[in-house]
Amino acid sequence: MDVFVIGAGASGLVSAIKAKDAGCNVTILERNNKCGKKLLLTGNGRCNFYNENQDIKHYHSSNIDLFKEILESKKDEILPFFKDLGIVYKNNNGYYYPYSNQSTSIVNALLNKVKKLKIEIIKDTLVTKIEKKDKFIIYSDNNKFYADKVILACGSSSYPKTGSDGNGYLLAKKFGHKINKVLPSLVQLVGEDNFYKEWKGIRSDAKLTLFENDKKIKEERGELQLTDYGISGICTFNLSALVSRGLNKNKKEEIEINFIPWFDKGKKEFLTWMNEQNNKLSNYKLKDILEGFLNYKLVSLLLKLSNIKEDSTWNEIDKEKLIDLIMSFKFKVKETKSFENSQTCIGGVPLEEINTKTMESKIVKGLYLTGELLDVDGDCGGYNLSFAWMSGMLAGESVRKND
Ligand SMILES: Cc1cc2nc3c(=O)[nH]c(=O)nc-3n(C[C@H](O)[C@H](O)[C@H](O)COP(=O)(O)OP(=O)(O)OC[C@H]3O[C@@H](n4cnc5c(N)ncnc54)[C@H](O)[C@@H]3O)c2cc1C
User: Fold this and answer.
1) Using CA of residue 238, residue 239, residue 242, residue 246, what is the dihedral sign?
2) What are the start-end ranges of the H helices in 281-334?
3) Weakly modelled stretches of the chain, pLDDT under 50
4) DSSP category for residue 197
5) Which residues, in sequence order, are bridge partners of residue 220?
6) 213 CA distance to ligand 1 centroid (A)?
7) Of 56, 135, 225, 370, whose CB has the highest number of CB atoms within 10 Å?
8) In 156-170, which positions are buried (b, 16+ CB within 10 angstroms) versus exposed (e)?
9) Which of 179, 178, 170, 236 is closest to 203 using CA atoms?
């Protein structure tokens, strides 16, 4: 049986290995002259390829029950799979990385296995059209191929410079598949105000609380990065999936930033604590007291936004406004950054159109879909790659069985 895999990314490489193990003749077509371009960028070049906490709450889909079937059937096979490929990994608080701290270890392990199994990879081959007659006919910009089965593993629209630029959705759509609205996720957020140039470059431990139409919906804590357009950092990314969905439905999205998450009490207690600090640090300017626990650039900005002079003392000022800015700074979200910056995408082919035991299309027999092309997205922390591996395994193992 001739199986063609379209895309040599995360899910494509795994599906090819599994299909070959199952006894198929496998060929991979990749548009780039290099495989796994996106994989190489993952985890800041370290590849956070798995997470110990595979709770369903870390995944999102328009049909989470169907996703659950995939998760339950494959989540325990990811680590043994990579162990068999020779990957020695480490577990940093549940986040798994190759011990080398290099994503090249993961990409090379997959490519070494592909080579050992004598799977052919044809690079510089952009698939432009696929037809199904007796066999599948796959057209590329420079060639034509015939296949018994096709695994579509073209990725999503995020980071188009890596090769996954959304064209896979069009290939699936031509076969009659629906594409649920595709939106950027795990992405930076752009704010509505105009002072962001002044906080650019600041990093601060923070607690973020997301309010949607004034209703609290999620909290995240972590290192917040302040940028000239708004906010970034993992805690921001983990709220961005909800923000992106909400903005798409014209909901008001607002994030309250607490710049002192280590102070685990309320504003009244903070006022008392500041009074005590002020008494202890007599003759200190307010700015000097604040710089004892906040970034100095942030202190200047917060004072400016509260209309407080830099040389003021604690006793002289309107305390309420300043405490509000420190503990519940209102960041009004205007939009998310675009697909160029997003680590993953919301939306794609709905799971209802796929047999989730095999990843075979319910619309076209012999066509399989994997990875980000499907309507599943995960939180930051190894979840998106986990889904790519799981869906790739299922498709590769099933192509022959469903003959
Ligand atoms: C900067 C960044 C960091 C990330 N970090 C992490 C992380 O640490 N942990 C994590 O879990 N996830 C991370 N992700 C997400 C993760 O990389 C993706 O979820 C995963 O790679 C998706 O796998 P895939 O197989 O669906 O698509 P991809 O890995 O994108 O592979 C698709 C492949 O198909 C090829 N292709 C597309 N169209 C065609 C065509 N028509 N013909 C031929 N070839 C085609 C592309 O060139 C590409 O090689 C990160 C993403 C980014 C952008």
Assistant:
1) negative
2) 286-290, 296-305, 319-327
3) none
4) G
5) 208
6) 33
7) 370
8) bbbbeebbbbbbbbe
9) 236
Answer for the pair 112, 17: CB distance below 8 angstroms, yes or no.
no
Report the separation in Å between the CA atom of 161 and the middle of ligand 1, taken as the mean of its atom positions. Answer: 11
Owner of token pair 């057209």: 139
Q: How far is CA 26 from CA 14, 19, 107, 118, in A?
A: 12, 7, 18, 9
Q: How many CB atoms lie within 10 A of CB 94?
A: 12
pLDDT of residue 142: 83
Return the structure tokens found at 174. Answer: 């031509």
Specify the pLDDT at position 369: 98
Q: Is 138 a pocket residue for ligand 1 (Cβ < 6 Å)?
A: no
Domain(s) of CATH 3.50.50.60: residues in the chain:
2-183+344-401
pLDDT in tens, 322-375: 999 999 999 999 999 999 999 999 999 999 999 999 999 999 999 999 999 999
Q: How far is the CA of 249 from the centre of ligand 1 (A)?
A: 27
